Amino acid sequence: MNPDNGEMDALRREIFGEQLHCKCQQELLGINGLKDGKEAEAAEAKASGDLFGYLNCHDKRHWPAVLESLIAETSPEEWAKAVRDAWIYSDEIWINKGKWKSILTRAKELRGLMSDVEVSKFEQLADPLTIYRGCNERNTEGMSWSLDPNWAKAVARAGAVGQEADRVVRGLARKVDVLAYFEEHGEEQEVIIFPEFVDQVEVIERL
Q1: Closest by alpha carbon to 59, among 82, 84, 80, 38?
Q2: How far, in whole angstroms, is CA 191 from its chain's centroid?
Q3: H runs (alpha helix) in the chain
Q4: The whole model's pTM is what?
Q5: Cα(58)–Cα(10) distance, rounded to whole angstroms?
Q6: Which of 36, 28, 61, 34 is nearest to 46 (CA)?
Q7: Which of 111, 96, 107 is closest to 71 using CA atoms?
Q8: How far apart are CA 206 and CA 85, in angstroms?
Q9: Domain spans of the chain?
Q10: I want to staple 160 with a disulfide (CB 3.0 to 4.6 A). Which of 32, 60, 137, 155 is the partner?
Q11: Does 183 have pLDDT greater than 50?
Q12: CA-closest candidate to residue 66, choices 11, 189, 48, 85
């Protein structure tokens, strides 16, 4: 029996790894990810400085590449704000994990990535941070974590991590290693950090 498309997709990731899968996805989407019929809208948004509007004219999986193309054309603060919006509204971050790491490293020190309120609240947090993530065995090492274990559990149960989740993990993070702290979704208290800087990761609940 021949495997269906979903099985073949999983098999490719298993054999060749995430990098090759991401390359295939990008090739399937086209050169720049601009949505059909959005050329005029994209040009108008870009000309008016509406960077998020410009991003929205592209497929989400191309947003990191679009952000990279805007670096030399916008102010550092406006670019950082666009990075923030793109991260918050992106899906399947893992597809462009390498690009996101590069973008967040560049944006970390720029005003606009975090709001003044978020900066103030982050400064008051204890160090190190105890952080949580809803995930499965294969995507434990993600970049998006939360200070709230209940939020991590809710995300896992909702399937918002892009794959079926079956656990909540806990880890420790030094504040100096945190790339950004967002409160866009209220209780989430999202902590963005490269997984290699999260210590003592352990499963605290299986779902």
Answers
A1: 38
A2: 11
A3: 5-16, 18-29, 39-48, 51-56, 63-70, 76-89, 97-107, 116-124, 149-158
A4: 0.81
A5: 26
A6: 34
A7: 107
A8: 31
A9: 31-107, 116-206
A10: 155
A11: yes
A12: 85
Q: Which residue has the tokens 């995430």?
A: 18
Q: Name residue 88's amino acid.
A: I
Six-digit token pair at 203? 């499963």
Grouping H, G, I as helix, E, B as strand and the rest as coil, residue 138 is helix
Among candidate residues 140, 84, 131, the one with its CA nearest the CA of residue 112: 84
Token couple for 47: 């000309």
Residue 26 confidence (pLDDT) above 70: no
**Cα of 45 vs its chain's centroid, Å:** 23
Exposed (0-12), middle (13-18) or buried (19+): which is 108, by Cβ within 10 Å?
Answer: middle
Strand partners for 167: 135, 206
**pLDDT digits 0-9 by tens, 143-156:** 999 999 999 999 88
Q: Which fold has domain 116-206?
A: ADP-ribosylation fold (3.20.170)
Contact 83, 67 (CB under 8 A): yes
User: Which pLDDT tens digit goes with each residue over 28-55?
Assistant: 344 479 999 999 999 999 999 999 999 9
The token duo for 140 is 């434990």
> CA–CA separation, 110 vs 105, rounded Å?
10
The span from the CA of 197 to the CA of 177, in Å, is: 7
Give the phi and the psi of residue 203 in degrees, each rounded to 5. Answer: -75, 125
